[in-house]
Amino acid sequence: MSRKSNAKSAASGAAAAPSDGARALWGAHFSGGPAEVMALINPSVAFDQRLSAQDIAGSRAHCRMLVAQGIIDRSDGDAILGGLDQIEQEIEDGAFQFDPALEDVHLNIEARLTALIGDAGKRLHTARSRNDQVATDFRLWVRDAIDRIDSDLKAFQEALLAQAETHAATVMPGFTHLQPAQPVTFGHHLLAYVEMAGRDRGRFSDARRRLNECPLGAAALAGTSFPIDRAATAEALGFDAPTANSIDSVSDRDFALEALAAAGVCAVHLSRLAEELVVWSTPGFGFVKLSDAFTTGSSIMPQKRNPDAAELVRGKSGRVIGALNALLLTLKGLPLAYSKDMQEDKEPVFDALDTVSLCVRATTGMIADMQADQARMASMAGAGYAVATDLADWLVRELNVPFREAHNVTGQIVKLAEGKGLELSELELGEMQAIEPRITGALRDVLTVEASVASRTSHGGTAPSQVRAAITRARERFL
Ligand code: ARG
Q1: 161 Cα–ligand 1 center, Å
Q2: Are the CB atoms for 183 and 165 separated by under 8 Å?
Q3: Could you report the per-residue pLDDT of 92-102, keeping only the tens digit for each?
Q4: Residues 314, 316, 319, 324, CA torsion sign
Q5: Pocket test for ligand 1, best of 131, 334, 347 (most atoms within 8 A of CB)
Q6: Which atom of ligand 1 lies at the shortest distance from residue 48's CA?
Q7: Whose C-alpha lies nearest to ligand 1, atom 11?
Q8: Selection from 81, 84, 87 nearest residue 68 by Cα
Q9: Helix 186-211 crosses helix 464-478 at what angle (to 10 degrees)?
Q10: C-alpha neighbours within 13 Å on the C-beta side of residue 53
């Protein structure tokens, strides 16, 4: 479509004067103007202009379908497509003037189209309503966001796997109740997050699959009397099929709720890792050093290295969870079909999905840069009698003591060691034999941290051999 013929049709068309605002598009039966406060509460263009690209894509698909079905003339269709190209360019260049008097992104683009190409622009809205238009735009936006987050999460898994490989045999204390429990390998601990991120990706991709039906053609709520081809518009926009029910199409935002639910769970996973990074990087733990790139100093305390990125990831999980609540609460009392309440759907979704993407990327950076202090981790791995379970397991395995009894015997030995301020391996053989006479010197071999982790070879266990096998499988499953 040449600019020249655009200009010609623009000259013959009557564009809405900007001052008429949206009323020029829908207000023929109105005589009064909006209240001042209405002009503040009603418009959404300040935030829904983020749907511009999706709105233009939807309009192109709708226009081509209208032409193919003979509902509008090809010449009008060409003018519309040319006008949409120009609008797309104007938006890209930052030259497009979004006008709050035109309420939302849909009316802004439509008004500009008519200003550019004249009467042909007024035909685009045939067999369409803003209700199916916004439902379509929003699905397209959420779908794009899900795809972005999926690639963010994949990069996060890659960073975790690289560190897990480096630290497949690095020992550290494993905790329950944040009390030393049993020694584990650092690689194994990091692989736990690879699994969480994998399920997060699964939840997003489930949501995407159900989302991927096209509401366009539902019109206001009842469908349309025009001979539209909904399969064609669905296909043009990359949807699997048109939605089945026109009322459902314009009423529900469960696709956004599902994305927010996936985002909430993901944010909680990131927050737990962030919490661990905060704790691990304190001098008290000293397990890891976060890089300069993800920490800040203090203006008064010259020694400080604050884990700001981790704290922000932990903190931002709250607003992501809040967004899910906000949209659930917005929707819960709404009768079918569309109500203007639903204009409130966008800001929490934009914010939460942007935030999750940001948090995944910041966490990936922290993990990739993080330096583990292996000596420090090893020195703490055996603290707190972390190999006590290995002692009990030895009694079961070598002496055929029932586990409950072995637990009790080990407890007595731990008590003895505690009283003397010694590690289990530092006790005299005779002292242990006073509690269980059948104990032999061979017991000492299992009372090291290295022997403890190496012995845990069950599927999914912490032994370095298992960790290396798990890394190989994870790369096949996720990357
Ligand atoms: N800006 C509106 C929204 O985001 C678009 C749909 C308006 N539909 C209507 N019937 N007023 O929900």
Answers
A1: 45
A2: no
A3: 999 999 999 99
A4: negative
A5: 131
A6: 4
A7: 340
A8: 81
A9: 20
A10: 6
Query: Within 10 A of 101 (CB to CB), how many other CB atoms are there?
Result: 21
Cβ atoms of residues 165 and 190 within 8 Å: no
Q: Are 173 and 381 in contact (CB under 8 A)?
A: yes
Q: pLDDT digits over 446-466, tens only?
A: 999 999 999 999 999 999 999
What CA–CA distances, in Å, run from 372 to 170, 187, 289, 472? 9, 11, 6, 22
Q: Is the pLDDT of residue 9 over 90?
A: no
Tokens of residue 227, six digits? 């001979």
Distance 16 CA to ligand 1 centre (A): 19
Nearest to 440 by CA among 404, 475, 399, 407: 399
Q: Which two tokens stand for residue 395?
A: 């009694």
Q: What is the atom index within ligand 1 of the atom nearest the CA of 103?
A: 1
Average pLDDT (23-48) is: 92
**Which amino acid, residue 129?**
S
Q: Which of 207, 309, 215 is nearest to 264 (CA)?
A: 207
Name every protein residue with a CB atom under 6 angstroms from any ligand 1 atom. 44, 48, 104, 130-131, 134, 338, 340, 342-343
Cβ neighbors of 129 (< 8 A, separation 6 or more) are: 218, 219, 220, 221, 250
CA distances from 307 to 193, 197, 370, 391 (A): 19, 22, 11, 38
Output the CA 130–ligand 1 centroid distance in Å: 6
Which residues are the active-site residues?
A: 177, 298
Predicted pLDDT of residue 14 = 38
* Test site for ligand 1: of 134, 141, 216, 249, most ligand atoms within 8 A of the Cβ: 134
Nearest CA to ligand 1 atom 4: 343
Which numbered atom of ligand 1 lies nearest the CA of 105? 1
| Plot region of 466 (φ>0 → left; ψ -120 to 50 → alpha; else → beta) | alpha
Q: How many whole angstroms from 361 Cα to the centroid of ligand 1?
A: 33
197 Cβ neighbours under 8 A, 6+ residues apart: 153, 156, 157, 160, 266, 269, 478
- The 10 Å Cβ neighbour count of residue 217 is 26
Q: Give the residue-averaged pLDDT of 357-377.
A: 98
Closest protein CA for atom 3 of ligand 1: 343
Ligand 1, from 343, 345, 349: best to mutate by most atoms within 8 Å of Cβ?
Answer: 343
CA of 123 to the centre of ligand 1 (A): 19
Q: Per the structure block, which two tokens stand in for 96?
A: 């497009």
